[in-house]
Amino acid sequence: EELNKVLLCAEKMALAKDDADAFNIADYEFHLAVLNCSHNSLFVTAVESLKDIVMTALKAMNDLDGGREWAIDLHKKIAQRLIDRDAKGAIELLKNNGEYNLARMSEIF
After folding, report:
1. C-alpha gyration radius of the chain
2. Is residue 101 a contact partner of residue 91, using CB atoms and an 8 Å limit?
3. How far is CA 41 from CA 32, 36, 73, 78, in A?
């Protein structure tokens, strides 16, 4: 059930792709849903307390050219890997796209 919520959040992102504010909220909810699956209450609480900072970072990334489409695709793939219990596949997606994110974000910083 928790993992299906992750996928629903990714689908919510797709539905909100033309509304920046709704998209960013759905993106944050996706990340929070993933954290809730970890059952690590300290990590969840930390991210919840840093919500404004996390939202600022998500907004910056999602406002870049192609950012929303890229995020929808990646988040759906990650959600599906988690549902399939393919942790290695999910981690591989994160590693490959982490470098891409850093390159994109370097323009902002």
Report:
1. 13
2. no
3. 11, 8, 28, 21
pLDDT in tens, the chain (109 residues): 999 999 999 999 999 999 999 999 999 999 999 999 999 999 999 999 999 999 998 998 888 888 899 899 999 999 999 999 999 999 999 888 877 777 767 766 6
Query: Residue 43 has which token pair?
Result: 């990590």
The tokens for 63 are 């406002």
What pTM was computed for the model? 0.87
The encoded tokens of residue 55 equal 């939202």
> What are the residues whose beta carbons fall under 8 Å from the beta carbon of 24, sequence distance 6 or more?
55, 58, 59, 62
How many other C-beta atoms lie within 10 A of the C-beta of residue 45? 11
Distances in Å between the Cα of 28 and the Cα atoms of 17, 23, 84, 88 are 14, 9, 22, 23
CA 40, distance to chain mean position in Å, is: 17
